[in-house]
Amino acid sequence: MVELNPTHSIKVTPPQRFLPVVEKLKQGYFLWHQCLELLPKTQKYSIGNRIDKLLIESIEAAVTATFLPKEEKLPWLRLAIRKLDTAKVLLMIVWETKSLDDKKIVGLSEILNDAGKMLGGWNGQLQKYLRENSPRIARGQTGEK
């Protein structure tokens, strides 16, 4: 606990750095949060909240995957991709109902599409690794120390 003593200085640690895909998802969420405030009430508390939840769950799944061994990452990556893709479909509905300005939707869509490509690339690399190393992984010889 930090005590209030004027003779002591408080050291602030820099923010933690995540993988670029997680940073991209965070960037998309920050932009979405601004958009959510602009949605009409009829959509803010229905589809808006659902998109919000899906984006948060996508970030959560991607962050979880970053801290797991390679053999355990794949289900979490697939979950992140599924949540992000669902959020993008719902965002299309918001756009089709003209509930948000086109510029905001386009900017957000570009960021989320980039994040989706990054997740897809990570998923592909991981699948390739697992295919090439599955016999060794099954025997417990992962090469990790």
- Name the helix and strand elements from N-terminus to C-terminus, one letter apiece: HHHH
Q: Could you name the CATH topology?
A: de novo design (two linked rop proteins)
Contiguous low-pLDDT stretches (5 residues minimum) are none
Strand content: under 5%
CATH superfamily: 23S rRNA-intervening sequence
CATH class: Mainly Alpha
Q: What kind of oligomer do you see?
A: single chain
What characteristic shape results from the CA principal axes? globular
Total number of strands: 0
Amount of helix: over 70%
Compute the separation of the termini in Å: 36 Å
| Main sheet overview | none
Number of individual domains? 1
Mean pLDDT: 88
Tally of alpha and pi helices? 4
Q: Which structural class is indicated by helix and strand composition? A: mainly alpha
Question: Could you describe the 3D structure shown?
Answer:
There is one protein chain. The chain has 145 residues and is mainly alpha-helical. It has a single domain (20-132), classed as de novo design (two linked rop proteins) (Up-down Bundle). The chain has helices at residues 20-38, 41-66, 70-96, 102-138.
Short description:
It contains four helices and no strands. With 145 residues, the protein is mostly helical.
Note the topology.
Layout: H1 20-38, H2 41-66, H3 70-96, H4 102-138
Helix pairs in contact: 1-2, 1-4, 2-3, 3-4
